[in-house]
Amino acid sequence: MSLMDKTALEIGAMIKNKEISAVEAAKESLNAIKETESKVNAFVTVLDDDQVIKDAEDVQAKIESGEINSPLAGVPVAIKDNMCTEGVLTTCSSKILSNFNPTFSSDAVLRLKNAGAIMVGKANMDEFAMGSTTETSYYGATKNPWDLERVPGGSSGGSCAAVAAGEVPYALGSDTGGSIRQPASFCGVTGIKPTYGTVSRYGLIAYGSSLDQIGPIAKDISDCATILETISGHDIKDSTSILRDDYNFTSALVDDVKGFKIGIPKAYYGEGLDAEVKEQVMKVAKTLEEKGAIIEEFDLDLVDYAIPAYYVIACAEASSNLERFDGVKYGYRTAEYEGLHNMYKKTRSEGFGAEVKRRIMLGSFVLSSGYYDAYYLKALRTKALLKKAFDEAFAKYDMILAPAAPTVAPKLGDSLSDPIKMYLGDIYTISVNLCGLPGVSIPAGLTPSGLPVGAQLIGNVFEEKKLIQAAYSYERTLDWSLPSI
Ligand code: GLN
Q: Ligand 1 in contact with 132 (CB < 6 A)?
C-alpha cells in the first residue's frame, strides 16, 4: 500500500508520531503525480520538487518545535485552480488567466498553510468552474481514475480525480451548483459543500458570487470534517462571510443516527434517475434505517424550476464577474489590436472558451432592460420559493437523502455537444446552492459495471454537523477502496 492510499488524518498522525517526515510525505505525493499524471491530467500546475520539499522542510521544523500541531500538518494537498495562490500560477483553467500569478493567497489556502499543509499543485477544473465534466478546461480534460475513458465530473474534476488516483490524500474544491458533490460522486470520494458564508470566498475567483463556496474533498468524512474545521471561519475580507457559533465539525464524528429523521423527496427518485444509481442510493437509505434513522418519503415542491432558475442567476452573476478580464488588469492580452475597444474584443474572444462565452451572453441577456423582469427577477422569485420549500422540509426532517447526480460518469466527449442535457445533470445539486444549504456527497456503491455512485445528504443552514454525523455512521459500514491505476 502506498502512503498516498492512506487518509490525510492517517498521514498526519504518522508525521506526528515521527514514523515519516513531512518531506517523505511530500516526495511520495510528487512521485505518485509523476507516475499517474500522464493518464489522469488532474493538475494544471505541479509545483517544482525543490519548492515543495523546501516547504515540507519548513513545516517539519515547525512541527518539531511545536509551532504547528494541526492534524493536517505536513500532509500534501491539491488546490483547485480558481483559488489564488501567492506566486503560483492561478489560471481557472482559462487561456485568459494563463499567465496570472497572484500577489496574494485566498483565505482558505492561507488557513491551510498556517495549519502546515503542503501544497503540491493546482488542480484542473472546468474553465471558470462552468461545466460538469472538466472538459471545458483550456488545459485538456481530466480523466476519471475509475475508467480513463470517462469524465471525472466537474467542475472540481481535477481535485476529485487527484484524490481518487492517489496523487494527493485531499484537495480543495469549490461548489457553485454541485462542483464538489457531483465529481466526488463520479470519483468515489467524499466532499462537503458548506453552508454559504462558512468558508471565506476571499481569493476565490468568482463565478456566481451568491452561490460559490469552497469545500473539502477527501477519502472519507473524517478527513473532510477536519479540513472544513481548518478552512472555515469568519473573514472580514469577504462581506458574505458569517461568524458562526461553532466551527467544531470534528466533534460530529460520532457513530449514531438513532432518531434522525431523513426525508426522501419523491421527485428526486422518479423520471430521469438511472435505475443503477437509484439502487445504490436506496441502499444508503436502508443502511441508515438499519442503524436507527427514520426514513420517510415526501413531496418537495418546485424541483423542475431549479435548473432554469440556477442557470439564469449563475450566468447573470458570471457575466458581471467576468467583466474584469479585459486584457488590462489580468492575464492574457491579444497580440495585435487597433485601439482599446478592439483590444477588449479580441482579448476576450481569444481568451475565453465556448462555454464561458455562452454563459456571458446568456447572463448579459437576462440582465438587459426589457428581459430583467421576465428572466432574472423571476429566477430570484423562484429561488425564494425553493428556499421556502426546503424550510418546510427541514421543519419535518433533520436532513434529506438524494442522489448526487442522475447518472454515473459519462464518457469523455458525450456531454459538451448538448449543453442543455449537461445542465439537466445538475438537478440534485443546484437547489442546495440556491438556498445556501450544506450538502455532503458520500460513496454509495458501485454499479454492476464497476463505476462509483454518490449519495448526497442535504441539511438545513448551519447543520453540517448532522450531515457529518450521518455520513460518519454510514461510512463505518462501508467497505470502499479506490481504483489502482
Ligand atoms: N455544473 C454547474 C455549472 O456548470 C455547477 C458548476 C459549479 O458548481 N461550479 O454551473
A: yes
Atom 2 of ligand 1 has which residue's CA nearest to it?
A: 177
pLDDT band at 18 (very low <50, low <70, confident <90, very high): very high
DSSP string, 241-269: ----S---GGGG--S--TT-EEEEEGGGG
Let me know: does 326 contact 292? Beta carbons within 8 Å.
Answer: no
Tell me the per-residue pLDDT of 298-348, one tens digit each, with 9 for 90 and over. Answer: 999 899 999 999 999 999 999 999 999 999 988 999 999 999 999 999 999
Ligand 1 atom nearest 425 alpha carbon: 1
Best mutation site among 407, 426, 432, 433 for ligand 1 pocket (most ligand atoms within 8 Å of CB): 426
Name the DSSP letter for residue 167: S
Segment 153-167, tens digit of pLDDT: 999 999 999 999 999
User: Which helix or strand (DSSP H or E) is residue 367 part of?
Assistant: helix 354-367
Residue position matching grid coordinates 478546461 = 137
CA distances from 423 to 54, 131, 242 (A): 43, 8, 30
Which of the residues are catalytic?
80, 155, 179
pTM listed for this prediction: 0.98
Domains for the chain: give ranges and CATH numbers: 1-485 (3.90.1300.10)
Q: Retrieve residue 324's grid coordinates.
A: 474584469
Task: Decide if pLDDT at 1 tops 80.
Answer: no
Ligand 1 within 6 A of CB of 131: yes
